[in-house]
Each structure stands twice: as C-alpha cells, then as structure tokens.
Amino acid sequence: MKAAFYETKGPAREVLRLGERPDPQPAPGEVRVRIAMSAVNPSDTKNRAGHRGNVQMPFPVVIPHQDGAGVIDQVGEGVDPARIGERVWVYEATLGRPFGTAAQYTTVPSHKAVRLPQGVGFDAGACMGIPAMTAHRCVFADGPVTGKTVLVQGGAGAVGYYAVQMARLGGAARVIATVSRDEQAQRARDAGAHDVVNYRTEDVAARIKQITGSEPGVDRVIEVAFGVNLKTNVQVLRPNGVIATYASDAQPDPAIPFWPMLGKDLTVRFVLVYAMPLEAHQQAADWITDALSSGSLRHQVFQTYELDEIVAAHEATEAMSNVGKVLVRVS
User: Fold this and answer.
1) Which of 90, 108, 111 is closest to 98 using CA atoms?
2) Is the peptide bond prior to 216 cis by the omega test (within 30 degrees of 0)?
3) 134-274: CATH class
4) What are the residues whose beta carbons fall under 8 Å from the beta carbon of 111, sequence distance 6 or more?
5) How far are the Cα atoms of 96, 138, 160, 264 from residue 185, in angstroms, in the given order?
C-alpha cells in the first residue's frame, strides 16, 4: 500500500517519507479500513517532531495520524462480516499501534471504526475523532449544561469550535467564546457562540462580567490554555464551577491559586482523549453519530492536501495562523 511514514523523529521535511508499505491485516476483533480521508491533529505533528523530549520511536516505522474516514474492506475473527462495505470514521489509529490513517489502509479495534451516517462525507468523518471526542468530554463529563453559562477559551480552535456547538446543542443558556483575531471571531459565531471576546484587545474577566451582568457569571469553562488562563477562569467562575482542560502548552507547570479555588469549591477536570474510559468514548461516539445524522454539526477545514503533499500538510498544521482542520486525501 502507499503510505506516509517516518523512521526517526524530527521536522516534517527531514523525516517524513512516502512509499510502499505492507498491507496491514486485521487481527481478531479488528477491522481494516480503506482510508479515503486522513486528518492531521496537533498531537500527530508533536509526536512526529519529538515534542517535549518524546524522541523515542515507539515502533521502527510509524505511519502517522490518529483520525480518518473510509470503508471497511476486511474484518478479523469475531467481527461481524456484515461490517464489510460499511462507511466509517476512525479514531486513535496510532494509539499504541504503528499503522495510522496516512495510508491506503489501517487496522483498528472494531469499536474505533464508527459508522458514518449516510450522506455525511469522508471529509466530515475525518474531522471527528480526537477533537470532537475531546470536546464532548469537556462539555458533558460533569453533567448537563442545560441552562448554564459556558465559556470556551479558544472557541475557533479544533476542539473549541466543536465545544461551542455542543454546548449550544446541549441547551446552554449562554456560550461565550474567546479568540485572538477577527477571522476566529466569525468562526466562533458561526459555531453558535452568543458572545465573542478578543483576549488580545479586551479584559476577558471584565468583558464577561459585562456580558453576564454578574460577578462571577460562568458555570463551566472549556480550556485550551490552562496555565495562562487560570487566574481569569477563577475570577469568572461561579461557586461549584468546573474547568475542563485539555491543554496547557504555553505554561505547562502552572501554580495553583489554592485558596481562591478552594473558596469557590471549584473542580478541575483534566481531559486526555487517549486516556478516557471506554464508556466515555462510546458516549461521545453515540452523540457524534446522532449529531452527524441530523446535520447538526458544522465543520471547518483549512485545506485538503494529497498524500504526496504530506510534508506541507504537517507544516500547515504546525502554523499557528491557520484556522480550521488540515485533511489529507488518500483514496
């Protein structure tokens, strides 16, 4: 099969190669998917680059990308043969495995190939997986958001864009999104944010107080920059509020303001999709399937590259100025 792969970690232009690799075969309990569309996540590029000292190769050869979409063409022992021909979206293809979706075929445990509803394109399917499942966990893990005020920090990002939509679809009374520029503000509004705050030009805490008419006024925060935004989040959260955070790149070792957080009885939920329990994955997959079936979710794609352009696709994902998902067309 044709595949993108790397044998050592480093910059995309130095380590990514394109060539023929053996076709993977499904083990018991697995399916093989002929990939039509592959998605590039930040975790894919960070793993390839050896981010934060993660330079050890987990396998001699790695085909990157966790997420994708395509058609099941083989099943392993114990999997219903009726699944052959089923259109699916795939998640966590390289979690503890060497065969990701940047190839003509990948194999995954059967439950990680989720039925793609009729009429939903492979491009939309490839956008699911890591970002949409992370967003679902952040929004709903601590109970319904019906009638609540939800703050989504980074509301135009890969996770934030879906978190805004999920909070709205979940019945939140008000969804506030933060962004850093006008293009992102429009994306957050398109996703359904009632209010958008530019954190580069506005005092976020003061603006939220103005929006909510109370001090504090937020029930739940979905957070992409935990350390940087912690002080602001503590200010704007109501007692018994929740910060659900999935990243803290700019400030990876933040100091915790213990007494202010204790005084409000706040909860911090750390969300890592790769460590989520199976039940949480299933709940997210079911919710996403229903939303795709009803046409309730919007998707933002920055650009679609061909597999031959895998280096450019990784570099586009690493460029902080781009808004939207980077996809790679395989078949």
Assistant:
1) 108
2) yes
3) alpha beta
4) 278, 281, 282, 285
5) 37, 21, 12, 30
> What are the domain boundaries of the chain?
2-127+299-329, 134-274
Q: What is the CATH number of domain 2-127+299-329?
A: 3.90.180.10
Q: CA-to-CA distance for 59 and 112, rounded, in angstroms?
A: 21
The whole-angstrom separation of Cα 157 and Cα 134 is 12
Cα end-to-end distance, the chain, whole Å: 11
Same fold yes or no, 2-127+299-329 and 134-274 = no
Closest of 273, 264, 269, 331 to residue 105, by C-alpha: 331
> pLDDT tens track of the chain, all 331 residues?
999 999 999 999 999 999 999 999 999 999 999 999 999 999 999 999 998 888 999 999 999 999 999 999 999 999 999 999 999 999 999 999 999 999 999 999 999 999 999 999 999 999 999 999 999 999 999 999 999 999 999 999 999 999 999 999 999 999 999 999 999 999 999 999 999 999 999 999 999 999 999 888 999 999 999 999 999 999 999 999 999 999 999 999 999 999 999 999 999 999 999 999 999 999 999 999 999 999 999 999 999 999 999 999 999 999 977 888 999 999 8
Cα 207 to Cα 18: distance, rounded to the nearest angstrom: 49
CA distance 228 to 70: 38
CA distance 81 to 52: 42
> What type of residue sits at position 288?
I
Query: Residues of 95-116 as b/e, b for ≥16 C-beta within 10 angstroms?
Result: eebbbbbbbbbbbbbbebbbbb
